[in-house]
Amino acid sequence: MKFGIVGCGMIAAFHVNAIRQIEGAELLGVADVNIDFANSFAEKHNTRAYANYQALLDDPAVDVVCICTPSGFHAENAKMALKHNKHVVVEKPMALLPEDADELVELCKSSDRLLTVISQIRFAPDIQKVKKLIEENAFGKIVQVNLSMMYCRTPEYYSGSAWKGTWKLDGGEMMNQGIHGIDIMRYLVGSVKKVHGLSKTLHHNIEAEDTAAAVLEFENGALGTINSTVAAFPGYERRLTICGTLGSVVIIEDNIEQLNLKDYTYKRDPNGKTKDVSNPSDIDVTGHVIQLTNLINAVNGTDKLLIDANENRETLQLIWGINNR
Ligand SMILES: NC(=O)c1ccc[n+]([C@@H]2O[C@H](COP(=O)([O-])OP(=O)(O)OC[C@H]3O[C@@H](n4cnc5c(N)ncnc54)[C@H](O)[C@@H]3O)[C@@H](O)[C@H]2O)c1
Fold first, then answer.
1. 2-120 has which fold?
2. Which residue from 5, 6, 11 has its CB within 8 A of the most atoms of ligand 1, so it is best to mutate?
3. What span, in angstroms and rounded, lies between the C-alpha atoms of 2 and 171?
4. Whose C-alpha in 64, 127, 185, 206 is 20 to 30 A from the C-alpha of 32?
5. Contact assessment for residue 282 and residue 297, using Cβ atoms and an 8 Å cutoff
6. Whose CA is nearest to atom 38 of ligand 1?
7. Residue 275: pLDDT above 80?
């Protein structure tokens, strides 16, 4: 399976790393709106730079395009790739507007090409463990869910980027940072039926929201809350608490912190490794490797595609609901 990457910034390097860890996957080249970025990225990663995205799409040897551009370009980049008969790996979020997400869902239905949206945290071993426990009804009836994402981003994080903090290209802190937590909450607990949310720009000199709060009702009847910000000092790790009538779990970042079932209690070693939550590039590439491998296997017909456009749309729908947009 031959890959091309569009957008040669921070996350693109993780895609190069992931592709090169997968047997049978090969990186053919990269493209960027800024040819100097494409050239220096290509040189650093020992690959070729296409003149632009169109040139990458016109290369018949490219089977899969990894879309690593700013979020507001994802939908258009993905539509172009599907129309050029490429399979697509698109970074989160798949789209910033409902109409673009709908169009992608429809395009995927009518195409024989596959699209997957990066949601790498789902593949963390502890998230998979909790998913299995919930499927086995180990928690009984889930009654309460709390997702806390008290992050910190510096003013320089926004001032150093032309797109971060804008509605049109970034979509706000839930679309950018909070989407991972919202996605795993929804993955574990299920679809959300009702949402009441508020979001505001409380601290950063940006256009989009930097702080949000929401009350939720899930399809399964559970109630929940989300608190989310990038304006907290010093910033804490993401904490997801799921409480049921037979058991409960606290997940911090990607790890089970505490798990209590009727006949089982687990508490994480307090001396274990923690994540630098204020560093946007402190990312484990393992989830990307698993997800790209899943796409390749789905294309080859040996596996079911795990995260498609429809699946990501539900996560986006929830964020739009909280933003009242
Ligand atoms: N999965 C994750 O954990 C994770 C982590 C970080 C970023 N991301 C996502 O990856 C995307 C990129 O983030 P980043 O931090 O790498 O950004 P970045 O600013 O470092 O890089 C973006 C690159 O895209 C290029 N670009 C801009 N517009 C383009 C266009 N129209 N066509 C082609 N290239 C274009 C820019 O020149 C730049 O090189 C975002 O959507 C973000 O949400 C995901």
1. Rossmann fold (3.40.50)
2. 11
3. 31
4. 206
5. no
6. 9
7. no
